[in-house]
Design brief:
This protein is of the alpha/beta class. The chain contains 8 helices and 5 strands, in the order αββαβααββαααα.
Length: 207
């Protein structure tokens, strides 16, 4: 289970405010990519909090409320839109969302822990932690906030474009989604540079 070992090691170096950062939505064929930054208080405890991928939807929603309603937890979430993903590529757009999330914190962190590899030219000192959401509690918290935020956005898109089933697959390339693309073509929220959307060479007749 993730814990505060990495955060506490940095605090012993005199770095008081440590932000965990994670993203959601790099792989889907549609929708934005989201990123969250979270600073947890010292000796923070939230039993069962884990990498969002290991939690059920109900568990994620519960932890999201517990984290975002706790006045001692400092957090921010940001997105990169589809047009930014298309123009920058998904990796750079993800890093843009991460920078926006950190800039949205009401406290500037002394150091960041980012899930995955280090980010080139990042705005704050940081470490990349491979599988960080399984090791760092603040990264796990960020993974939950990023995931729930994006899922809620995809539910809103589902209400606008119900024939794609965004509420069920959140834009990932499931059989249901691919069949809807074949029938209706992509809408303005699809990532047209992503395969198989690009390969299908469809038009905007689904909007």
């Amino acid at each position: 289970m993730p814990n505060l070992s990495l955060e506490n090691a940095l605090r012993r170096q005199g770095k008081e405010w440590i932000a965990g950062i994670d993203e959601a939505g790099r792989g889907p064929l549609a929708g934005p990519v989201s990123a969250a930054a979270v600073i947890l208080p010292k000796r923070f405890s939230c039993r069962g909090l884990d990498d969002s991928k290991k939690l059920t939807k109900l568990q994620r929603e519960d932890f999201y409320l517990r984290l975002t309603e706790d006045p001692k937890v400092v957090w921010a979430v940001a997105i990169a839109e589809v047009h930014e993903i298309e123009s920058l590529n998904i990796l750079r757009a993800t890093h843009l969302a991460m920078r926006r999330a950190v800039e949205g914190l009401k406290i500037a962190p002394h150091h960041c822990l980012i899930d995955g590899l280090p980010v080139r030219d990042f705005s704050h000192p940081h470490d990349g932690i491979v599988k960080g959401d399984s090791h760092s509690l603040s990264i796990a918290a960020a993974s939950v906030i990023a995931k729930v935020t994006r899922d809620r956005m995809m539910k809103t898109l589902h209400d606008q474009f119900p024939h794609y089933g965004f509420a069920q697959h959140q834009g990932y390339g499931t059989r249901q989604h691919l069949e809807a693309l074949r029938l209706h073509g992509p809408c303005s929220h699809h990532r047209r540079t992503f395969q198989p959307v690009a390969q299908l060479n469809l038009f905007l007749d689904g909007c």
